[in-house]
Write a structure and sequence with these properties.
Bound molecules: 2-acetamido-2-deoxy-beta-D-glucopyranose
Oligomer: single chain
Helix content: 10-25%
Structural class: alpha+beta
CATH class: Mainly Beta
Number of strands: 10
Distance between the termini: 56 Å
Length: about 200
């Protein structure tokens, strides 16, 4: 019986993982400390993805870059580009970053409008110095489970160890497991995928 329950739980976890294409964890989203005085304007611009949580959504994605811009009409636009490391195909995904509460609140949401199933996901900046690194967290509750996603973004395609350590200290401070992080390949991306 116990074994069957575990099987059911495992199956559920797999379903949730497939639906959300993210790391499923037992239990609700953990508490996270977001930033007290976030400045979205300083956050805008181009970021290279240095590391990410394993997710099917981004499976085999390399050369991942995001560009956040102020649309001028109160919206922040997101353009994500990546190259599929297996097929070599380039993809562009567009969306909106929404500031929900106060302007200095780093709890935002991101919605991708150019994908078959539009998604609205939490986008919480846990820490950034704006010039070198940012740590972004996204967690959604699904009953018994939650799906967790995290990214380390850097302004440089190949950030120094010192910059990465500053990012890791944000990761550690929030009790985020480093076990699921994988490095994003930013080598041989070519200038054409940099724009
Ligand atoms: C990245 O930087 C490290 C040292 O800062 C260097 O050893 C390495 O070759 C660089 N890699 C690339 C792809 O530029
Ligand atoms: C980001 O997007 C804006 C608006 O489309 C564009 O003007 C800018 O050149 C882009 N920046 C980078 C670094 O790609």
């Amino acid at each position: 019986m116990r074994c069957r329950q575990q099987l059911v739980l495992l199956t559920l976890a797999a379903v949730v993982a497939a639906v959300a294409a993210q790391v499923p964890s037992l239990g609700p989203c953990p508490e996270m400390k977001t930033m007290d005085e976030f400045n979205v304007n300083k956050y805008l611009g181009r970021w290279f993805q240095a590391e990410r949580y394993f997710s099917l959504f981004e499976f085999a994605a390399k050369c991942v870059i995001s560009n956040y811009t102020d649309s001028g009409d109160g919206r922040y636009l997101v353009v994500n580009k990546h190259v599929n490391a297996l097929s070599g195909l380039k993809s562009v995904i567009q969306g909106d970053l929404h500031v929900m509460g106060r302007q200095d609140e780093s709890k935002m949401t991101i919605s991708f409008t150019s994908v078959p199933v539009p998604m609205d996901l939490p986008y919480w900046v846990l820490g950034t110095d704006y010039d070198n690194y940012a740590v972004v967290w996204s967690c959604s509750n699904f009953g018994l489970f939650s799906t967790r996603n995290a990214w380390i973004l850097t302004r440089a395609p190949n950030a120094s160890l010192e910059v990465m350590q500053n990012a890791y200290s944000v990761v550690d401070r929030n009790g985020i497991s480093r076990a699921y992080f994988i490095r994003t390949d930013q080598r041989n991306c070519g200038e054409s995928s940099r724009h």
